[in-house]
From TrEMBL:
Alphabetical UniProt keywords: DNA-binding, Nucleus, Repeat, Transcription, Transcription regulation
Entry superkingdom: Eukaryota
Residue ranges of domain Myb-like in the record: 7-59, 68-111
Protein name, UniProt field: Uncharacterized protein
A Pfam family hit: Myb_DNA-binding
One GO CC term on file: nucleus
InterPro entries xref list: Homeodomain-like_sf, Myb_dom, Plant_Male-Germline_Reg_TFs, SANT/Myb
Organism of origin: Hibiscus trionum
Length: 276
DNA sequence: AATGCGAACAACCGCCTGCAT
DNA sequence: GATGCAGGCGGTTGTTCGCAT
């Protein structure tokens, strides 16, 4: 408890279940506003700011608490950060169930990771770019998935033609690791990565490539068997507003765990599809 | 089992903005 | 227009947890 000049006390630190309940009841009754009156009414010895923050970050309905960022959410954050900068609240508005605090924490964790990688590489006096990065396939942004209309099939066939194999080191610019200026700025045309040799998702069966050039993937993870067993696909990031609204996200958390954790960190902005 | 370390999360602080007076 | 206040936001710090050694 911290005593104020007016004699009242302000409580700081972790919230208790009882406090949460009181706050929830207040919001139910009065709505998420007038935070300062919570204290003036004697309901809680917390500042209005603290109450608001607790509501926004923990008590608000439909929050994805305790749930790691999906691959799609990670991508969206990276794209939106490139577009808006550190406007976490703005970015969070595109990610249903995520708060600005979530996004901020995610980003700073990512940044620390990058810092450490950079530091490690500098200490080793090596090229900061890892040489054994897996090859990924970069798909055009206008790819339409999950529909079987003639138009969509046509678009899909176009997409297959545009489909490119790109090795990650080819996408890397040395200055992307310049941590002085922050993180790599991804000029994001939404892109999709298809890691090879991962379990294929049922909804993606029809995306398997019949004419796939398996010779292209021999270097992938130095695996002896270069032919991919399957293809896995991350759903389109085209509409960020839809993120997280799907019941079964096609990119479960465990899926992303299969990736090198810093995979996105090494991506260079792609030329627009017009230049392909 | 103890310890160290990194990641994730929770909460606070200070600044800024918008609005009412 | 000046002032005060509430709320919003970004940065930062503290705490907890899980994992490796």
């Amino acid at each position: 408890m911290e005593r104020q000049s007016d004699g009242t006390c302000i409580k700081k630190g972790p919230w208790t279940a009882e406090e949460d309940e009181i706050l929830m009841n207040y919001v139910k009754k009065y709505g998420p506003r007038g935070w300062s009156s919570i204290r003036s009414m004697g309901l809680l010895p917390r500042t209005g700011k603290s109450c608001r923050l607790r509501w926004v970050n923990k008590l608000r309905p439909n929050l994805k608490t305790g749930c790691k960022f999906s691959a799609e959410e990670e991508r969206a954050v990276i794209e939106l950060q490139a577009e808006f900068g550190n406007k976490w609240a703005k970015i969070a508005r595109h990610l249903p169930g995520r708060t600005d605090n979530d996004v901020k924490n995610f980003w700073s964790a990512r940044r620390k990771r990058l810092d450490r990688i950079s530091q490690t590489q500098e200490n080793k006096g090596k090229d900061p770019v890892p040489h054994e990065m897996p090859m990924v396939e970069v798909l055009p942004a206008n790819f339409v998935q999950g529909s079987s209309s003639h138009e969509d099939q046509f678009k899909r066939s176009l997409f297959m033609e545009e489909f490119q194999m790109v090795s990650l080191p080819d996408l890397i610019k040395p200055d992307l690791l310049n941590l002085e200026t922050g993180l790599p700025v991804l000029d994001i045309e939404p892109i999709r990565m298809i890691p090879l040799d991962l379990p294929i998702l049922p909804e993606c069966q029809d995306l398997a490539l019949e004419s796939f050039d398996y010779n292209c993937v021999g270097m992938f993870n130095n695996q002896s068997e270069s032919k991919p067993k399957s293809l896995t696909k991350i759903p389109s990031a085209g509409s960020h507003a839809e993120l997280g609204n799907k019941e079964n996200d096609a990119a479960p958390d465990c899926f992303f765990d299969e990736f090198p954790t810093d995979m996105f960190d090494y991506l260079e902005p792609l030329p627009s599809s017009l230049e392909w």
